[in-house]
Amino acid sequence: MDYLPYVQAHRDFYRPLEEADDIGTVYRASVVPDDWRRNQSGIWAMHRPPGAPTVTHGWKVHVSASYKRAQDVLDAAAAMCVEREVPLKHLRSSPFFIMLHHKQAYRPQSGKFIAAYPPDEAAARKLMEALARATSGEEGPYILGDRRWRESRVVSYRYGAAPHLDDPYSARHRADDRQGLTGALQPRPARRHPPHTAPAAHPTAERSGLTSPPEPTPQRA
């Protein structure tokens, strides 16, 4: 159902969803400082702190939310990201939220509301612990392809490519093992895990902590 996002913005013409005249309720990460870089890419609003390290791939932290509690969850999650200077992105408005939670939504993106990009595994653990506390009691859909963090009903994670929030399209380029972009285009939808993410590098911890990434599945950043 790839055509569905293109029949919502205009009654007569195929248009990208983000070009709709009425974008409904706008979600704002008001806690983000003024000196953070802000960007928009399609249905996403992106926020990146000054001096944040470039992350091309790694553990991505996702936060889901119920429709009625979306702005409240964003307020809580953004505060935790700002406190730790972790880049994040979130859906820009309510129609985009509805489309990404539609039963025909693109499966790897379905259920996602907020994505954060910690620089390493230790930072990912600390961020998820903080997010779980800040969103305690919240309920959200399960994000397909993710593993939920401990007992949280909204915080989850997966291993994959991370977009550059200065240049959202840079995730289309191939990243080498640890050094960043090589300049070669990475054909979508393929994603490959570098050797250092083998199971031995990430021991499993039952019902807590990060686990080894699953076999690669087609997904978007």
What is the number of helical segments per DSSP (H or I, 4+ residues)?
A: 3
Largest sheet properties: 7 strands, antiparallel
Strand order of the largest sheet: 1-2-4-5-3-7-6
Spans of at least 5 consecutive residues with low confidence: 168-173, 177-181, 198-208, 212-217
The residue-averaged pLDDT reads: 78
What spatial form do the alpha-carbon principal axes imply? globular
Portion of residues in beta strands equals 15-25%
Helix and strand element order: EEEHEHEHEEEE
Query: Count the strands?
Result: 9
Alpha carbon gap, first and last residue: 19 Å
Query: What gyration radius follows from the Cα positions, in whole Å?
Result: 17 Å
Helix/sheet category: alpha+beta
Helix content: 10-25%
Give a summary of the structure in a few sentences.
This protein has 221 residues and is an alpha+beta fold. 16% of the residues lie in helices and 19% in strands. α1 (70-84) runs antiparallel to α3.
Question: Would you mind describing this structure in some detail?
Answer:
- The structure is a single chain.
- The chain has a 7-stranded antiparallel beta sheet with strand order 1-2-4-5-3-7-6.
- The longest helix is centred in the middle third of the chain and has 15 residues, at 70-84.
- The chain is globular, with a radius of gyration of 17 Å.
- It contains 3 helices and 9 strands.
- Helix content is 16%, strand content 19%.
- β6 (147-148) and β7 (155-161) form a beta hairpin.
- α1 runs antiparallel to α3.
- Residues 168-173, 177-181, 198-208 and 212-217 have low confidence and may be disordered.
- It has helices spanning 70-84, 94-100, 121-134; strands spanning 37-41, 44-48, 57-63, 88-91, 114-116, 147-148, 155-161, 173-175, 181-185.
- The protein is an alpha+beta fold.
